[in-house]
Amino acid sequence: MICAVYKSSRKQETYLFVPKRDDFSQVPEPLLQMFGTPLLVMLLPLDRKEKLGIADIDKVRSELAQKGYYLQLPPPKDNLLTQHRRDLGIED
Q: Where is the YcgL domain positioned along the sequence?
């Protein structure tokens, strides 16, 4: 299975995987509006991959088959001040 991976023109580190290049027919319109203009990053052969960067490859395959797309959001940002306070033993 080969899928197309697009990055968002509006949201940093946000990617949309679709089964066919330039086929967004299964992606809900509100999601496409939030996503902005999809910018093609790569065509990705999922059947030859065992691991992806931060996405669970089994979940990507499953959602592509069931929903027709997979949306990868950026990981949550660490709050450095909270982490520093925790390291110092200071509770909020």
A: 1-85
